[in-house]
Specification:
The chain is of the alpha+beta class. Helices cover 24% and strands 23% of the residues. The protein has a single domain (18-264), classed as Jelly Rolls (Sandwich), CATH 2.60.120.620.
């Protein structure tokens, strides 16, 4: 029996590949997280979105978000009780700077088997069409695996600017969220987001979860058990942060990021 979702919501996710909006984190906590990100920018001279993988490990608050019971209850209803957190990223769009996310499938680069990962996209600020909210193409997770062109466009927030060149987006859906709400989408769904046409920063945290039985197709990699049991042992553990911007953890995160951005890290759609 599901913990929090209705059978209709679960069926909708299975059929359409997404679910939104869902209530999650107190808005006061998301505002505090934005303050943490502002401090990072002042100290480092870069947005936290420059951390391309495992951003949740870099701050105490985001680490707690990745283990938040309201989020994990929904994830459990979608993928089962044995849950690993694989990675995460802060998605930050300054007002009117033209940053966007091209149409893509996460499954082309994540290197997982089987494809059962769910992304939780937690809104740290309000996320709506005018500031570039996530958009999805319903049901595309049940279709083909697309090949992606790696553009390395400096305005594309994806690490390699990976883009699906020809896609019918006439039925695309905007996932509008208030700060503290979240959406869920399947790793094979085609999704992206337009530029932020407002004056304020739009911020979200994407957190990637999969069932513990999922394997890596790209060698031995780390992921953390956040609920249930791991009877399979396919993954090493990530280090646990003891403070914001823990230097030991940051070194681990930087090393993981190098692999993800390496052009030799082939996209799955080229090999299947």
């Amino acid at each position: 029996m599901p913990k929090v979702l209705t059978e209709d919501q679960i069926a909708f996710y299975r059929d359409n590949g997404y679910l939104a909006p869902l209530d999650g984190v107190d808005p006061s906590d998301t505002a505090a997280m934005c303050d943490d990100l502002d401090a990072f920018e002042r100290d480092e001279g870069a947005l936290a979105s420059s951390i391309v993988v495992k951003g949740h490990l870099c701050f105490r608050r985001s680490f707690e978000f990745s283990r938040h019971p309201k989020i994990l209850d929904v994830v459990e209803d979608l993928i089962g009780p044995n849950i690993m957190v694989f990675s995460s990223r802060f998605w930050m769009k300054p007002g009117r700077d033209g940053s966007f996310v091209s149409w893509h499938q996460d499954s082309a680069y994540f290197g997982l088997d089987p494809h059962e990962l769910v992304t939780v996209w937690l809104a740290l600020t309000d996320s709506k069409p005018e500031n570039g909210c996530v958009r999805v193409i319903p049901g595309s997770h049940r279709g083909k695996s697309y090949s992606h062109v790696e553009t390395y466009d400096e305005k594309n927030l994806l690490a390699r600017g990976q883009s699906i060149e020809e896609i019918d987006d006439s039925n695309a859906v905007d996932l509008t969220l208030r700060a503290g709400q979240f959406s869920c989408h399947h790793e094979r769904i085609v999704h992206g987001s337009a530029a932020n046409d407002t004056d304020a920063m739009r911020v979200g945290l994407g957190i990637f979860y999969f069932p513990a039985h999922v394997k890596s197709t790209l060698g031995w990699r780390p992921a953390d058990l956040v609920r249930g049991v791991d009877e399979w042992g396919h993954w090493d553990a990530d280090p646990t942060p003891t403070e914001d911007r823990d230097e030991r953890v940051l070194a681990h995160v930087r090393e993981a990021g190098k692999r993800y951005t390496d052009p030799q890290y082939r996209q799955e759609a080229e090999t299947v």
